[in-house]
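Just curious: can you write whichever protein you like plus the matching structure tokens?

***
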Amino acid sequence: MDLNLDTLKREILEYLDANGFAVFRSSPGGLEGLPMILWDAENFPDYQSFLDVAQKCGVHLVLFASAEFDADDIEELLAHLEECELSRDERRDYESRLRNLRTHAGVTCSLELAFSYESRLYVYEVQPDWYDDFCAIEEEVMAHLAGEEPDADGDSLGGYFSNN
């Protein structure tokens, strides 16, 4: 979903304050590696429904994290492209796609809300489609650097499953 996360960020913080939640400002990606249960934000994008669950569970503390898209990430990926064995057309395609993403520099690219309940971490996470595109490009470039050939779907786990 292509959302304006800067607007959504302000709206969420106002909602949290108005509904008496204590907000713990966590680091973006700080939940990685922890066991968590993800909210289906694709089919149920309303953060208020997620926070209603927290309230009904008696939760008062919500973790909040956001990240801004950094133009340096694009530059770093462009530098990695130089190390890849790519055809001229492939390289141009990646460079063009990355140049188009520069318009999003400084824009919020990820929001995370989370709460703990009965030893489980429940997480609401959203990011816009353009950031998903950037992450897909990054994954493809890193696969090329590692000497792997990314699948047409961009799925780097393609070799782990049998086609039988």
Confidence is low (pLDDT under 50) at residues 154-164.
